[in-house]
Amino acid sequence: MKMNEVISNVEIFGIESAIRGSKYPMAVDLSKVNAEMTKTVMKLGTSRQGEGHDNFLNGILIQFDLTFSNKAWVEAERYHFLDFISSQSTMHRITKFDLDSAYIEYVDPRMVEIMKEKVAAYNELEAANKLNPNPEVNEQLKKMYLEILYSNPAGFRLTARMTTNYRQLKTIYKQRRTHRLPEWQAFCDWCETLPYREFITGQEA
């Protein structure tokens, strides 16, 4: 899986101000503190997780569009500081997606066909019911919609706008670099392309 299939529209904020902030503990005259990268800053940024020396990485904010399957989203949601700005919704739009392109390659084609059949049947009945509303049909549509939601394979892809920081990326990278899911591999590949990637990977260039 390629990086651009998983990550897009990246924006990074606060690198220089975070580097300056990392120097505050040893500064007396703050007017002399600058954003120059030093060995000390690099040592702080690449320190081990839990030591607290890399706290300034919280100040490097990053936003991006993340496209994950349902399977990967369940795992991503455990990260408290990987925040959703907004996302696509199966709850609202599951019957409107192009199902031929919505699933990752590992979803069995037979399951995709079942989903297409269920969605087509729902959309057909919904359209007919709009012309001639029937309370009993409304109840049937509710049931059909739930069947579609609960039958949807874990390989269904959704995109969300995310915000986080370098310190959280450092945790994610360490835990997911060798993960089985190709989406996490692509995510970690992307982390290695970011400015001052050493802060995330923990390895000095």
Description:
- With 205 residues, this protein is an alpha+beta fold.
- It folds into two domains: 3-89 and 156-201, Gyrase A, domain 2 (2-Layer Sandwich), CATH 3.30.1360; 90-151, no CATH class.
- Helix content is 46%, strand content 15%.
- It contains ten helices and four strands, in the order E-H-H-E-H-E-H-H-H-H-E-H-H-H.
- The protein has helices at 15-22, 39-45, 70-76, 90-93, 99-102, 109-131, 135-151, 166-176, 182-191, 198-201, and strands spanning 7-13, 61-69, 83-87, 157-165.
- Strands 1-2-4-3 form a four-stranded antiparallel β-sheet.
- Helix 6 packs antiparallel against helix 7 and helix 8 (166-176) packs across helix 9.
- It is elongated, with a radius of gyration of 23 Å.
- The mean pLDDT is 95.
Task: Identify the notable features of this structure and list them briefly.
46% helix; single chain; 2 domains; alpha+beta
Sequence-ordered SSE layout with sheet pairings:
Elements: E1 7-13, H1 15-22, H2 39-45, E2 61-69, H3 70-76, E3 83-87, H4 90-93, H5 99-102, H6 109-131, H7 135-151, E4 157-165, H8 166-176, H9 182-191, H10 198-201
Antiparallel strand pairs: 1-2, 2-4, 3-4
Briefly summarize what is shown.
This protein has 205 residues and is of the alpha+beta class.
Largest sheet: 4 strands, antiparallel
Mean pLDDT: 95
Total separate domains = 2
Secondary structural class: alpha+beta
Percentage of β-strand residues: 5-15%
Task: State the helical fraction.
Answer: 40-55%
Amino- and carboxy-terminal Cα gap: 26 Å
